[in-house]
Predict the structure.
Amino acid sequence: MLSYRHAFHAGNFADVLKHSVLTLTLEYMTRKEKGFSYIDSHSGAGMYQLSDEYAQKTGEYKDGIEKLLNDSKAPSALMPYISLIKELNGEKQLSLYPGSPGIAKQILRRQDAAHLFELHNTDIAHLTNFCERWRKARVNQSDGYKGALGQLPPPTRRAVLLIDPPYELKEDYRKAVATLVKGYSKFSSGTYILWYPVVTRDYIENMELQLLDSNIKNLLKIELCLKPDSPEYGMTGTGLFIINPPWQLSEQLGEILPYLTSKLGNENSTYTLQQLIEE
């Protein structure tokens, strides 16, 4: 189908959760001198202009990242992410928002490699241009599920794999989990982050059952739901399954999730922080 454009949603509450976790994870990986691979199955455009027609049409960033930038009450665990966004925009008004490759480009070092996959013709052109001077980035217009698995195990035996498909098709829920399970079977010491939208709760429950029925260990589940589950169309929440989360990430999320629930939500908003499978 390939009609999904993340430019409509850049900087929304789902991005805030996903990218704050990604920032903490990648920064943790840089604590060791040895290089690592960052693998991104559905990369998007790399960087988004919040002033363009797509972002302005929905204005979702106004109820997401824009609410956090100048809040003195933001928890310390969220500051690496907020500081990264501020650094990208300088002294100017919020106008740029990075996709996951944009986050990675700010954090990865010379010894680290990025493998970025995207199928959409427009977004792959933007992504290629964005990565033009990023020497350790490899941009691929190919199936991100297969491409990501092809990078495992990495030469350095250290990797972070992000899987965040648009879920345009119902089969993406199954494919995303299957890729996670296969990746873990090839390389069990990597860190895996699987993003999902909360649109239909049954799909999330099926994903969870698939993961619980696998051989995966050390699995963390987090969710931020701005509204109660609803049978009506529309995303009411967002979540992540994280395999081998960095040390202290669960503790950091214990600060981040209540804050985001209060700051971006309302009295009906909830969060989940659950160790689904022990180490």
